[in-house]
Amino acid sequence: MVSSSSSSPGSPAASGNDVAIARFLADGFDLRAQLAGYLQLSLAELEQRLPRSTADLAALHPGAFDPDQAGQFYEDTVGTGHLLELAAWHLGSADYIADTLQLQQQFARGQVLDFGGGIGSHALAAAGLEAVEAVWYVDLNPHNRAFVAARAAQLGLAGRIHCCRDLADPALPQRFDTIVCLDVLEHLADPAAQLELFAERMGSGATALLNWYFFKGHNGEYPFHFDEPALVERFFRTLQSRFLEVFHPWLITTRAYRLMD
């Protein structure tokens, strides 16, 4: 296990967990510089692209987005555009993201699964926590995986974060002590089934940190979200039958759960 004091200078946990939150608020764990380098853009070019990244990604819909092929869409079609859109969201909503990192800090321990981990903010922060043994970052998009691996290496956390495509990877532990799944469930064609998969992989006393937003927007601004009433009802029936909510004090949409006894 790596303690905060033994992390490399500049890593999310270099001077303790509170400093990690402050570092995220300051620069998203050096997100701009790392993303510009990965995409081979100047910082000025990156700043020009970030504000229009959501519109650029949405422009792929509906022509490229087939709800029956959602996985292939996120794995192949979005390319590096998803990195830009996620970076814009994390930088523009830093206070909210920081609260989710505080929540993760409260619950994360042992083997941590970051499912659909995007640009890696939560994986990087979790990897620096003393109670965490290893972080298993899972994401379909190969660009996301490559970028997070590069970020982890730059921050001295390469040995703490393992990047995988999906839960079928044999390298993954059979049971996790913590599952983090944020801003993902609304993108899945069967989120109730995903909850069942999480339940199968949760160890004794494990906690799952989840949020969702099953809404396409008042003006279709979230075209990649699933919002069919029957799908949403199945999700909540599964959630309420399999999981018990655990109180936390953070005023955010993310909630904590353990398996129902």
Average residue-wise pLDDT = 90
Report the total helices: 11
Structural class: alpha/beta
Please give the radius of gyration in angstroms.
18 Å
Task: Give the name of the CATH superfamily.
Answer: Vaccinia Virus protein VP39
Main sheet: strands, sense, barrel: 7 strands, mixed
Can you walk through the features of this model?
- It is globular and about 55 Å long.
- A seven-stranded mixed β-sheet has the order 3-2-1-4-5-7-6.
- It is built from eleven helices and seven strands.
- The protein has one domain (5-259): Vaccinia Virus protein VP39 (Rossmann fold, 3-Layer(aba) Sandwich).
- It has helices spanning 17-27, 31-39, 43-49, 53-58, 70-77, 81-92, 94-107, 121-127, 142-154, 191-201, 229-242; strands at 110-115, 132-138, 161-164, 176-181, 202-210, 243-246, 255-259.
- 43% of the residues lie in helices and 16% in strands.
- By secondary structure, it is an alpha/beta fold.
